[in-house]
TrEMBL record:
Glycerol binds at D172, H259, H277. Transmembrane segments: none annotated. This is Iron-containing alcohol dehydrogenase family protein. NAD(+) binds at G95, K96, A97, T98, D99, T117, I118, A119, S120, T126, Y132. GO terms for molecular function: metal ion binding; oxidoreductase activity, acting on CH-OH group of donors. Residues 10-136 form the Alcohol dehydrogenase iron-type/glycerol dehydrogenase GldA domain. CDD domains: GlyDH-like.
Amino acid sequence: MKHYSIFLPSYTIGTDAYEQMGAICRPYGTRAVVIGGTRAMEAAREELTAAAAKGGIRILDFVWFGGECSFQNVEALENNEKVQEAELLFAVGGGKATDTVKALGEKTGKTVFAFPTIASNCSPCTSVSIMYNEDGSFLRPWFFQKPPAHTFIHLGIISRAPKIYMWAGIGDTYAKYFEATVSSRGERLSHYVGLGVTISSMCLTPLLEYGAQALRDNEQQKVSPALEQTVLAIIVTTALTSILVTQDRIIDYNTGLAHAIYYALTSFPQIEKDHLHGEVVGYGTLILLLADGQKEMFESLLRFNRETGLPASLKDMGISREELPKIIEKTLTMKDIDHNPYPVTKEMLEQAFEELERRGTE
């Protein structure tokens, strides 16, 4: 049997997470360049600078990542003098900034460390970058052998970030569980895919228990056990699931109907302009549950969405019911539903959307 290797993420979490920087990063080098979003770097600058000085790491510069995770921005960073001088690449910010630095690390062979400043997705712990064209349109995923060498999750910095990022991150995270379990249903899975699907339950359970409180704490800029559990689900658990279920470099178990609906809805300008990815995926998950006949879970998630303000109707996203046929038509063309355990039909979606419109607007 041919061998395979799996590389899982490691992380430090806490309000003093950066204090471990020297011990963890120094074996890879002492010259670092910080790359990220402008606001993110400002949010983390003081703590990063102090921890680097204490840990024997020299920060050469703070460099803006370019605003989009594109090959053009990666190339521009490759040509940056301070990047060329650095041994370590510190990715600071959200998903696009982190994905850009991971791609840069792959191109240059330099070691990447992630410092998320928001909890909106699992990019800091995954071994893939989502690449876009310069105009912001989706290009393709770029899979790597390994995730960042280590991820430093500073709960104090994340607690001070706008609540909207964690709010959207929750929607994208709980979708992972439902899509992984539905797409793998009835199959004999490899060890790593089966492990990923099993782990995915932790993308849901902590969020239902702690998510609403975490959002309230985030609004008060308060670090709490609920905030920690929610951040771990969004950044770490989702990444573990994603790495394991995409080990074969296929998306069969890493997507599903919720994401198909998301991509269908992005054809409406107001979705791209006014709504976040995880927010829309959270709505799509309610449709997935209705289409799949998971009535009890649908009721639980509908209550959760209402409590947290995640969408439960087309109106919540500024879409009229007259657009429903177009949404359904586009959803049925998406590759995300190719690996469903049963055919997703027009009639099935019509019933699910109508049911959600009835229940979601009560």
